[in-house]
Protein: ATP-binding cassette domain-containing protein
Organism: Herbiconiux oxytropis
Amino acid sequence: TTEAPLLTATGLTAGYGQATVLHDVDLELHAGRVLAVLGANGAGKSTLAKSLAGMIPIRSGTISLEGAPIDRLGSFQRVRRGLSLVPEGRRLFADLTVRENLELGLGPRSAADSLERVRTLFPKLVELSDRAAGALSGGEQQMVAIGRALASEPKVIVFDELSLGLAPVVVDRLLEAVGEIAGWGTAVVLIEQNVHRALALADEALVLRQGRVVFRGDPGEFTDEALRLAYLGAD
Ligand code: ATP
C-alpha cells in the first residue's frame, strides 16, 4: 500500500531499572492490517506492548501515530489519540458490572454508538451487562477487556496475550473478532503465544528474541524451521 502507516516505531529501546529488555525495535503498521508479534517467554513482547501503549517510558527511539510523535505522551493521552491496549491479564474491575467496565473505556471522542459496535461484535455482553465482571468466565472477561479498548474507537489496538489460559474454542472466537476489528480498518498489533493461529490471521509478523527483532515478513515466509530457530535461539 502507498498510504502512510498509522503506527510507526523506530529504534525502540526500553527496559526496567538497570535491565534493557527491548533493543532497537522498528515496526510499521497500516490501517486494517494485523501484525503478529511472536517470541518465546521473556523475549520482550509485553515490554513492546507496554512501550507502545505508554505504560512504561522508552529509553530511546520514536513512536508515531498518524505521523505525529506520541512517545512522550502518557497512556491516557495515547488512548485519546487513538491507540488502545488490551492488557495481558485483562485488568478488569471485578466488582464493577460489565456495563461499567465498558463505559470506563469511553473517551471524549467516542460516538454515542461506539458501544453499539462492541455489542454487535460480542452480543453476549448485552445479556451480561449487569453482571459483575469478576463473576464471568475467562473468555467473557476477555470480551469485556476488548470491548473496553474498542469503546474509545481506537485506530490502533494492541492485544497482549489474548488467548492466555482460555479454551481453544474460545480462542478461536476471540481471534475471529480480532479479524473483524481489523476489517473495520483498525491497525492491530497481536501479541500471541499461539503461533500458528496468529500467523493464520496476520498480514505480517515479527519474531522477538532477547528483545531484538530476528525475523520479520510475510506470515507465509515463516517456515517451521525459521520459527524453531527464532524460538530456540540457535544460530
Ligand atoms: P511472557 O510471554 O513471559 O510475558 P514476554 O515476551 O512478554 O514474555 P516480557 O514480559 O516483555 O516478555 O519480559 C521481558 C524481560 O523483561 C524478562 O526478562 C522479564 O523478566 C523482564 N521484565 C518484565 N517485566 C518486568 C518488570 N516489571 N520489572 C523488571 N523486569 C521485568
Q: What stands out?
A: DSSP finds nine helices and ten strands in the chain. Residues 16, 19, 21, 39, 41-47 surround adenosine-5'-triphosphate (CB under 6 Å). The mean pLDDT is 91.
